[in-house]
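Tokens for chain A. Residues wanted.
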């Protein structure tokens, strides 16, 4: 018995018919993808340009998506910057009030 027949018989006994067929299909697909001929190169430079031109809409969409992400990030950073500025203003106001209270307390203590 040739080795392939023995291997097939062993596979049928261990895995059953469906699993053996699936395994053979997987092996066939791997060999086919590995051994298939490469695509033919375009016969003229214009065809190569046409092939590359098909990618332009995808590149534009990626650029638009990148711009959207940058705009969203900028808006988020602007909001955070505004929050920090408001907090800083609040702290400055509080500091001025504390200075005023300190002056008032100092005047009362001196009396």
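Reply:
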């Amino acid at each position: 018995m040739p080795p392939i027949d023995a291997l097939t018989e062993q596979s049928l006994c261990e895995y059953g018919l469906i699993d053996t067929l699936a395994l053979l299909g997987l092996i066939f697909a791997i060999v086919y993808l590995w051994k298939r001929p490469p695509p033919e190169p375009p016969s003229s430079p214009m065809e190569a340009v046409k092939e590359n031109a098909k990618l332009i809409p995808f590149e534009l969409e990626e650029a638009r998506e990148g711009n959207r992400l940058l705009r969203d990030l900028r808006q988020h950073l602007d909001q955070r910057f505004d929050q920090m500025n408001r907090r800083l203003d609040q702290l400055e106001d509080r500091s001025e009030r504390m200075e005023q209270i300190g002056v008032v307390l100092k005047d009362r203590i001196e009396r």
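The longest helix spans residues 56-110. The chain has a mean pLDDT of 85.
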